[in-house]
């Protein structure tokens, strides 16, 4: 928090202010070397070095004064003593709990002087039972005439320790001695010090006591009064200064405040020290103000007041600048670290390192109490809402795919946010569903209106028997099932506008289905009080969204893209940076970079980020580098993400002059018209008892048009209205379509997550969208669109009854029931797709439900884990829409060549359309080819984090999915992975290959040897790596075959030594660190990082994890069960008993030095020593001797955190990174890369499926105009929305008889013939003007024009099917009803013609 970085002067003031109320409370001291800091904090008389006058100073800081005749010594307890003076030490203890929940025992000591010799002839005040107490003494026992030296106010008796801790805060101005102490002499309860002058009996403990004088008490009282007056003056000044700054801010004057960001070990602290007061003191990442997350409780203690007091002091510190920064060079810049990248901002100040670490501990208990007070939860359900599992961490098993989109920091911020969603028709429940799945602290739903039958058109959590019940009451329990970490409750505050102060308990308010006047009232109140607002509504095929995140909203990561980095090849004197080996740097103008490992210009290393200017794909400029010296070599550049700060205007102001984000550039003129038209709809509703215009009612539409025309002329510029567009908006105003709700529901939920996380750029501020192309070509009228008492009335209001019947009779095939599949089925259930008498839906998915699926595949519940996805998804949507019962056929088969007997010709020909919901290219390509073959429309879509795309494939109209190819998967050169990694991605790929080699491929080779006849014969020689395979068999079956689990531990330790020590030493033997290339350049330069061999360290967790995981997986291969609850000590015991061989360099080893060099170890024919191979073969046990023995290859599973797969890969990768001094990756990042995980979030999935189903409307309608269809490309992070017409299928031409030009569709056209003879087949094409040159089927060449007549004599009379069986020597499968032939031909001009394939129909 800011206190921990505040100037020392302010913190000292707070310390003084808190002193009276905490006089007996200890505070931790880091170490004895902070004694100087303690001295600075306390009165000089308490700790400062004393002026002994004629005496002798004694002790660490001269705390003792030895009188004349006394000597200063150190006693047996390591205490300073004055000999000859008597006296002794009193020990005190205090046991307390710090903020890190660690119990500490602190020990303190006080020296009490000896009883002095009494004197006579003293004053009455000094008289003590007939003796006189001298200066510095008091009368201890008048009856005995005993005097005692005045000592510190320490409490008696405690446990001693050799580790010094904090002293007790004194209650007198007398001496306190702080030194290291010895063993305790006694332990007694802590007692409050007794001040001098208090009535009561002084009880002796050991040898002394002490108290406060009257003057000391008076001093304290006066000091407290003066302190209170000072604090009141400070508060007054802060308020006045803040008011003055606010006035300046209104006029754009004054200085911009700066933000700081601190992350501590135990609690996360983000604070904002500037900005507008009206903005609610927003945090740098966009989180709301520090208002309570729950309604404030009436009862409270004084800590709240102290917090306000401390905040006031913090403000004063910031305003007065009590601490000057020492480094003027970086006065306005700093860096802050989060996750895998770090941010840099002109608006932040350097983290101020507290000069007194002691004060950090002093205030941490106080501040942690305040933090806990604001973060406390009211119930176990609310505690779960922190998105954390039982260990206090984010539940990665549930949120893993979303974490790769948002990151841990954003997820934690979301987990402390309370969200209100108002309006629970289709759009509202879609937003609530997506927010609940994402995970926030709490989700509150508001909609007291009774559910209506037409709500069922899109509200998937309403059932027919819920009609008439309050929407919120029936929706809340169903939304709450989605995520156990997100408590969902109903808003109980009554009308939203009757008491706006109730909204302060929320960070975000989402409004749907809300009158415009209420929208204005609520949105403006939220703007003034720092509450984020999202307003969104849909009207049939139209929709709108508005966002207001207040003033100075800070976006920590505007794009969500990974930072670019690379290796520096050169930096010239003008600051031009060249990337190594002409690698594209991927930067853009205005990006920022910093550097590491640069030689010659060392000041660039870890420098403040520099703004770059792109000079080319391989070069960029960093500006002036004068004074930095001459570049000598090396270095890496890393892009630094810059936060972006934007100001939002209130809703009422934006209504008059909106800022628009264009969703479709082909409709550039529509957003402003819709802005006016939707206001006109609200004006109509206000004058018609809250009802929107009736479906397709011309009178209502005319009234809306008139209202819109009046509004269009009220702004600064008159808006030109398209009468047809405004009337269509009126026609559809009561419409409620599930695909449109899905589109805006995904978008709105993502905006909510942006607001509370600061991740990604929000919509600024209005967006309008329509899909009028989805309107059916059938005639719509008021009669067609009038409600009929059906659950589909919301859809009928837009599309009409006739079209609804078409939807019900569609036969659709859904391939995949994962995230997209679930959303697709939900939309179809709401639309009534396939629910008619002739309709049907087939859905297939061979996958089972896993816990990680629950975060975005919302049809599934925890009880479904382990069940088949297709079955559970179908059951869930049939509950949503009972009309689908008996209409969904579930299957569990992959769609591929192996299942063509299931998905046969009859199956495909029965379909109307196909929808892909797949996550891999291979399966999508196969389905695409089948759709092309059977000429079926296909809808394809995919998501990647916040990105998504949709594609529509139409027979004879568009190209297919396979017509374009995705970019190839990124791969790394083997030479780099083997010997010269320079990025963590290299070490992870290497570790993943090691996993396969150790635990998958090796056991598979062994099993082949044991089961395949003559494996060492032909099969082995055909593999091309005979020696390597034989060595693997020897290792697994002879030299390294374990008998016990301890043998597996030994094997794992040997692998550590082999890979991280010996291999590295061998590499350095071949290429010493001082070696050079043929051109004289250092060999270890550029991308080559010189490694260091590792020595196994049993105290290093990564080293031990590698051995543990490798041993367990190796044991699994051999069916050996590890001992239950085997602890680290057992592993170490085994390791201590084993002998690790020393490294001996092998001069015969050759290592490939560059990717461009030939691999010196590549096997060449005849190069292997046959004697060596035969020797290995002879050492192998014959397979017969191992009858029944079989190894268990490991099946890699990334999502099982108990199987040690990712543990092994993470440890193996990080050990190699340690070899090469590469920054290591945590388990989370390693899992992402090694598991090739596709980032996913429910918001993108919902939006994309909405777009897909808008295209499905068009397919069902039978549209053939390619301009009516849209392929979509979206990125919610930017945000970006792009739509384009599909690419038309490729066309070709050839010249036929008589010179006639014939056009063919190269993709969709084909020639279809019956099972004729080859002679008839050739003649058939000659009639079309094509001369056949070659005919083939699969890999069999059946005919060629250059074949001699003798070869063709027997083929020409054969039917085409018999010819295939004759040449291929394989029968045609029974389920196959046709055979495909590829043909090459020439036209009448003897030009080669690219013609479609030929399908021969078999007679069965």
From TrEMBL:
Q: Which InterPro entries match?
A: E1_4HB, E1_FCCH, E1_FCCH_sf, ThiF/MoeB/HesA, ThiF_NAD_FAD-bd, Ub-activating_enz_E1_C, Ub-E1_IAD_1, UBA_E1_C_sf
Reaction catalysed by this chain? ATP + ubiquitin + [E1 ubiquitin-activating enzyme]-L-cysteine = AMP + diphosphate + S-ubiquitinyl-[E1 ubiquitin-activating enzyme]-L-cysteine
Keyword Ion transport tagged = no
Q: What class of enzyme is it?
A: ligase
Domain Ubiquitin-activating enzyme E1 C-terminal: where? 1269-1398
Superkingdom of the source?
Eukaryota
Indicate the secretion signal residues: 1-24
* Membrane-spanning ranges: 216-240, 301-322
* Protein's name according to its UniProt entry: Ubiquitin-activating enzyme E1 1
Q: Please tell me the species this chain comes from.
A: Trematosphaeria pertusa
């Amino acid at each position: 928090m800011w206190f921990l970085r505040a100037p020392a002067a302010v913190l000292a003031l707070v310390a003084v202010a808190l002193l009276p109320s905490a006089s007996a409370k200890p505070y931790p001291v880091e170490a004895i070397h902070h004694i100087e800091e303690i001295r600075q904090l306390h009165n000089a008389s308490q700790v400062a070095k004393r002026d002994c006058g004629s005496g002798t100073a004694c002790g660490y800081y001269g705390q003792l004064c030895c009188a004349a005749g006394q000597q200063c010594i150190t006693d047996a307890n390591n205490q300073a003593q004055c000999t000859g003076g008597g006296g002794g030490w009193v020990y005190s203890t205090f046991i307390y709990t710090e903020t890190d929940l660690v119990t500490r025992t602190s020990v303190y000591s006080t020296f009490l002087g000896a009883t002095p010799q009494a004197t006579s002839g003293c004053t009455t005040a000094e008289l003590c039972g007939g003796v006189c107490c001298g200066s510095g003494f008091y009368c201890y026992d008048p009856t005995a005439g005993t005097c005692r030296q005045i000592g510190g106010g320490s409490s008696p008796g405690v446990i001693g320790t050799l580790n010094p801790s904090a002293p007790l805060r004194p209650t007198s101005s007398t001496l306190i001695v702080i030194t290291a102490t010895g063993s305790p002499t006694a332990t007694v309860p802590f007692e409050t010090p007794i001040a001098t002058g208090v009535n009561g009996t002084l009880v002796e403990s050991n040898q002394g006591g002490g108290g406060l004088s009257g003057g000391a008490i008076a001093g304290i009282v006066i000091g407290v009064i003066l302190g209170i007056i000072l604090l009141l003056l400070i508060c007054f000044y802060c308020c006045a200064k803040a008011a003055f700054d606010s006035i300046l801010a209104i006029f754009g004057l004054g200085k911009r405040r700066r933000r700081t960001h601190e992350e501590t070990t135990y609690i996360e602290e983000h604070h904002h020290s500037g900005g507008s007061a009206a903005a609610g003191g927003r945090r740098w990442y966009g989180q709301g103000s520090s208002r309570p997350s729950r309604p404030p409780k009436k009862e409270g203690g004084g800590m709240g007041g102290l917090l306000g007091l401390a905040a006031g002091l913090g403000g004063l510190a910031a305003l007065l600048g009590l601490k000057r920064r020492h480094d003027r060079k970086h006065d306005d810049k700093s860096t802050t670290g989060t996750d895998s990248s770090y941010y840099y901002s002109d608006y932040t100040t350097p983290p101020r390192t507290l000069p007194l670490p002691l004060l950090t501990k002093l205030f941490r208990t106080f501040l942690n109490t305040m933090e806990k007070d604001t973060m406390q939860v009211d119930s176990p359900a609310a505690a779960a809402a922190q998105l954390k599992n039982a260990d206090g961490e984010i539940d990665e098993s549930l949120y893993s795919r979303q974490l790769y989109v948002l990151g841990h920091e954003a997820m934690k911020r979301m987990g402390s946010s309370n969200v209100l969603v108002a309006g629970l028709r289709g759009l509202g429940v879609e937003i609530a569903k997506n927010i609940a799945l994402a995970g926030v602290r709490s989700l509150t739903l508001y909609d007291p209106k009774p559910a209506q039958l037409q709500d069922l058109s899109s509200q998937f959590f309403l059932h027919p028997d819920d009609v008439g019940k309050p929407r919120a009451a029936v929706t809340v329990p169903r939304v709450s099932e989605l995520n156990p970490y997100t408590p969902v409750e109903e808003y109980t505050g009554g009308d939203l506008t009757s008491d706006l102060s109730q909204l302060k308990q929320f960070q975000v308010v989402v409004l749907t289905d809300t009158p415009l006047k209420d929208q204005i009232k609520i949105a403006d109140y939220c703007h003034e009080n720092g509450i984020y607002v999202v307003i969104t509504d849909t009207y049939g095929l139209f929709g709108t969204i508005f966002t207001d995140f207040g003033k100075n909203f800070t976006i920590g990561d505007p794009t969500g893209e990974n930072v670019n980095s690379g290796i520096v090849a050169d930096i010239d004197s003008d600051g031009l940076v060249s990337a190594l080996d002409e690698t594209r740097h991927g930067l853009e103008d205005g990006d920022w970079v910093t550097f590491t490992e640069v030689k010659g210009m060392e000041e660039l290393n870890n420098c403040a980020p520099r703004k770059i200017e792109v000079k080319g794909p391989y070069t960029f400029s960093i500006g002036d580098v004068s004074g930095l010296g001459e570049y000598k070599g090396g270095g890496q550049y890393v892009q630094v993400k810059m936060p972006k700060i934007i100001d939002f205007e209130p809703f009422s102001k934006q209504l008059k002059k909106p800022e628009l984000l264009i969703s479709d550039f082909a409709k550039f003129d529509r957003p402003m018209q819709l802005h006016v038209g939707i206001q006109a709809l609200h004006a109509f509703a206000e004058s018609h008892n809250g009802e929107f215009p009736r479906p397709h009612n011309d009178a209502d539409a005319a009234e809306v048009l008139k209202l819109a025309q009046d509004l269009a002329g009220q702004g600064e510029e008159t808006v030109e209205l398209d009468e047809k567009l405004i009337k269509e908006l009126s026609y559809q105003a009561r419409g409620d379509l599930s695909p449109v709700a899905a589109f805006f529901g995904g978008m709105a939920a993502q905006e909510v997550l942006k607001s509370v996380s600061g991740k990604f750029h929000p919509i600024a501020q209005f967006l309008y969208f329509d899909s009028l192309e989805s309107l059916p070509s059938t005639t719509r009228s008021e009669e067609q669109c009038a409600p009929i008492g059906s659950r589909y009335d919301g859809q009928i209001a837009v599309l009409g009854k006739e079209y609804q019947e078409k939807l019900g009779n569609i036969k659709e095939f859904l391939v995949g029931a994962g995230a997209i599949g679930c959303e697709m089925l939900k939309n179809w259930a709401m639309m009534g797709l396939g629910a008619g008498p002739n309709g049907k839906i087939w859905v297939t998915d061979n996958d089972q439900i896993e816990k990680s699926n629950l975060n975005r595949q919302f049809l599934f519940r925890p009880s479904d884990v382990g069940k088949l996805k297709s079955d559970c998804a179908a059951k869930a949507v049939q509950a949503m829409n009972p009309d689908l019962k008996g209409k969904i056929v579930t299957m569990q088969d992959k769609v591929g060549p192996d299942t063509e007997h299931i998905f046969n010709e009859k199956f495909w020909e029965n379909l109307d359309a196909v929808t892909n919901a797949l996550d891999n290219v291979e399966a999508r390509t196969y389905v695409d080819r089948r759709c092309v073959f059977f000429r079926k429309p296909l809808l394809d879509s995919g998501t990647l984090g916040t990105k998504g795309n949709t594609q529509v494939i139409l027979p004879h109209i568009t190209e297919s999915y396979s017509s374009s190819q995705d970019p190839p998967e990124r791969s790394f050169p083997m030479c780099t992975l083997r010997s010269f990694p320079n990025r963590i991605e290299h070490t992870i790929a290497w570790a993943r290959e090691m996993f396969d080699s150790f635990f998958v491929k090796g056991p598979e080779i062994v099993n082949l040897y044991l089961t395949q006849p003559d494996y060492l014969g032909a099969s082995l020689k055909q593999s091309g790596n005979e020696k390597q395979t034989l060595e693997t068999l020897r290792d697994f079956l002879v030299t390294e075959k374990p008998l016990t689990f301890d043998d597996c531990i030994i094997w794992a330790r040997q692998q550590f030594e082999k890979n991280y020590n010996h291999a590295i030493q061998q590499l350095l033997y071949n290429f010493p660190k001082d070696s050079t290339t043929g051109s004289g350049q250092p060999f270890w330069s550029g991308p080559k990082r010189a490694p260091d061999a590792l020595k196994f360290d049993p105290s290093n967790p990564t080293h031990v994890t590698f051995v543990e995981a490798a041993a367990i997986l190796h044991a699994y291969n051999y069916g050996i069960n590890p001992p239950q609850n085997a602890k680290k000590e057992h592993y170490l015991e085994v390791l201590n008993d084993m002998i690790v061989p020393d490294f001996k360099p092998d001069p015969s080893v050759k290592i490939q030095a560059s990717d461009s060099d030939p691999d010196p170890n590549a096997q060449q024919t005849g190069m292997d020593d046959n004697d060596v191979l035969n020797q290995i073969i002879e050492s192998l046990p014959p397979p017969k001797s191992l009858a029944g023995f079989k190894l268990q290859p490991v099946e890699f599973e990334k999502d099982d955190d108990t199987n040690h797969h990712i543990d092994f890969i993470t440890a193996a990768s990080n050990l190699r990174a340690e070899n090469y001094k590469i920054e290591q990756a945590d388990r989370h990042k390693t899992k992402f890369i090694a598991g090739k995980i596709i980032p996913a979030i429910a918001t993108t999935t919902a939006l994309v499926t909405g777009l897909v189903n808008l295209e499905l409307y068009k397919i069902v309608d039978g549209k053939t105009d390619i301009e009516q269809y849209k392929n979509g490309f979206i990125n919610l992070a930017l945000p970006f929305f792009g739509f384009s017409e599909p690419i038309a299928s490729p066309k070709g031409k050839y010249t036929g008889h008589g010179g006639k030009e014939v056009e063919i569709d190269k993709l969709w056209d084909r020639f279809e013939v019956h099972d004729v003879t080859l002679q008839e087949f050739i003649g058939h094409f000659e009639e079309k003007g094509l001369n056949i040159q070659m005919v083939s089927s699969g890999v069999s060449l059946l005919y060629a024009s250059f074949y001699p007549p003798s070869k063709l004599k027997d083929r020409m009379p054969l039917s085409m099917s018999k010819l295939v069986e004759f040449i291929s020597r394989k029968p045609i499968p029974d389920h196959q009803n046709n055979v495909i032939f590829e043909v090459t031909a020439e036209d009448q001009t003897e030009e080669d013609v690219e013609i479609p394939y030929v399908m021969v129909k078999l007679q069965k």
